[in-house]
Amino acid sequence: MIWNKAKECMAPEEKRKLQGERLHKLVEKVYHSTPFYRQKMQEMNVTPDDIQSIDDIVKLPFTTKQDLRDNYPYGLFAVPMSQIIRLHASSGTTGSPTVVGYTRKDLSIWAEMTARCLSAFGAGQNDIFSVAYGYGLFTGGLGLHYGVEHLGATVIPMSSGNTAKQIQLMRDFGATALACTPSYALYLAEAMEKAGIPRNEFKLNIGVFGAEPWTENMCKEIETKLGIDAYNIYGLSEIMGPGVSHECQYKDDSHIIDDHFYPEIISPDTLESLPYGEQGELVFTTLTKEGLPLLRYRTKDLCTLTDEPCRCGRTSVRMSRIVGRSDDMLIIRGVNVFPSQIESVILEMEEFEPHYMLIVNRVNNLDILEVQVEVRDGYYSDEITKMVILKKKIAQRLHSVLGISADIKLVEPYTIKRSEGKAQRVIDKRIFN
Ligand code: ADP
Ligand code: ZN
Predict the structure, then answer these.
(1) 3-state percent breakdown (helix, strand, coil) of the chain, nearest 5
(2) pLDDT value of position 96
(3) 323 shares a domain with 265
(4) CA–CA distance from 124 to each of 42, 75, 155 (Å)?
(5) Rounded CA separation 154/365 (Å)
(6) Which of 114, 234, 325 to mutate to test the pocket of ligand 1 (most atoms within 8 A of CB)?
(7) Is the domain of 106 the same as that of 234?
């Protein structure tokens, strides 16, 4: 179902007009209320009057995570604290946390955005959601929570962890939808199987997964293991939280909620705008945010954009899956490697579990990539020759995809640590050398 047809299916020209009006108002606002932006705009010789249409956005300055850190905690807030009714902080996957603040209106828009996503996943008032994203400073838990309530469905505020209880309550309460990170979904699937509870005792049929990069192959794996339809939801706390973009029933890239969050793609090196279709860094401008409005925020997430029409009727720009964060890109012997490429290979091969760790080290001035991967039950063997053949098979496949060789370490099922939130799959020891 389309939650807000008027906005989600707006004619592109009309949408651009709305975006332009919103941008102009936003720039007026931050110019007068945020010294940081006024100064940046003055340095670039830009005034709010220069911003008359959405195409003028390229005249505006970028914002980075470092800017948020430099102005910690509230320096970029555009309203007095008396109007801020909630704070969150980014989970600090990379570096120290950043604080974000929301006004009452921001929270109400956020709830609607998340409801739009859930509705695109086919969820409605009769659904019962187990929200297993962490509740707290992380935006995942509360973001989904209020989206489910806004949709009119039922929310079970589980938060993450306590896996045995999660499973019991999903069964007893008849949960029809599960929201968590893809890596926790895998963990739950495995724990459900281990607990020996038959699948037909669960009513689950929708998965709402995001907060970390995951591949198409991982999606299929989770769908098979849990027997559900899994959908991608994307967001980041600086822009709002979960609900910045979402898949629809066609799962052909994710719709960006671009009446509120204007997307651009830039080259992370030259900072120039790139045309749709080219891979680059995703940049967002919050068109309607009051508490912490951001101009051209550099997400560090790498993907492509498209404005081709989607069969569902929504007219928004769509984004591909995130290939990785530019921070996550490993440079190994001069070659760029994304963990997602390795994940894709592992998941293509039936001999392996979707659990892996990448260890990067430098020995005698040479980068070494070690891929630890769990061999599936039934394929693991004490016979060395069998394991050697398996190792060779994955090593060759990885080499053809990555263009470099990796040391493979096959490990027994269930030996790699499972994640309840965002998975940590890379240990780069070179940083400390
Ligand atoms: P942190 O930067 O501390 O991880 P957040 O909790 O706000 O802060 O996480 C936002 C980031 O999580 C995004 O910038 C992106 O890298 C990642 N992310 C969120 N949703 C998805 C998704 N569906 N697919 C890929 N990556 C995602
Ligand atoms: Zn669509």
Answers:
(1) 35, 25, 40
(2) 72
(3) yes
(4) 48, 39, 12
(5) 56
(6) 234
(7) yes
Contact between 9 and 313 under an 8 Å Cβ cutoff? The reply is yes
Q: Are residues 273 and 364 in the same domain?
A: no
CATH of the domain at 298: 3.40.50.12780
Q: Can you tell me which residue has the tokens 């979904």?
A: 185
Tokens read off for 218:
């991982």
Does ligand 1 come within 6 angstroms of the Cβ of 315? no
Ranges of the chain whose pLDDT falls below 50:
433
Q: What's the rounded Cα separation, in Å, for the pair 53 and 205? A: 43
End-to-end CA distance of the chain: 53
Task: Give kind and range of the element (H or E) at residue 230.
Answer: strand 229-236
Q: Judge if 115 and 24 occupy the same domain.
A: yes
Of 332, 273, 271, 265, which Cα lies nearest the Cα of 301?
A: 265
> What is the count of structural domains for the chain?
2
Residue 211 near ligand 1, beta carbon < 6 Å: yes
Nearest atom in ligand 1 to 232's CA? 23
213 C-beta closer than 6 A to ligand 1: yes
pLDDT digits (tens, 9 = 90+) for 174-202: 999 999 999 999 999 999 999 999 999 99
- The values of phi and psi at residue 406, to 5°, are -130, 150
Among 328, 355, 375, give the residue marking a domain's end.
Answer: 328
Q: What is the residue-wise DSSP string for 250-309?
A: T-SSEEE-TTTEEEEEE-TTT--B--TTS-EEEEEEESS-SSS--SSEEEEEEE-EE---
Q: What domain range is 425 assigned to?
A: 330-432
Q: What is the pLDDT, as a whole number, of residue 415?
A: 95
The residue among 288, 283, 214 whose CA lies nearest residue 26 is 288
- Tell me, using a 6 A CB cutoff, whether residue 353 lines ligand 1: no
On the 0-12 / 13-18 / 19+ scale of CB atoms within 10 A, 400 is exposed
pLDDT recorded at residue 53 = 98
Indicate if 306 and 172 belong to the same structural domain. Answer: yes
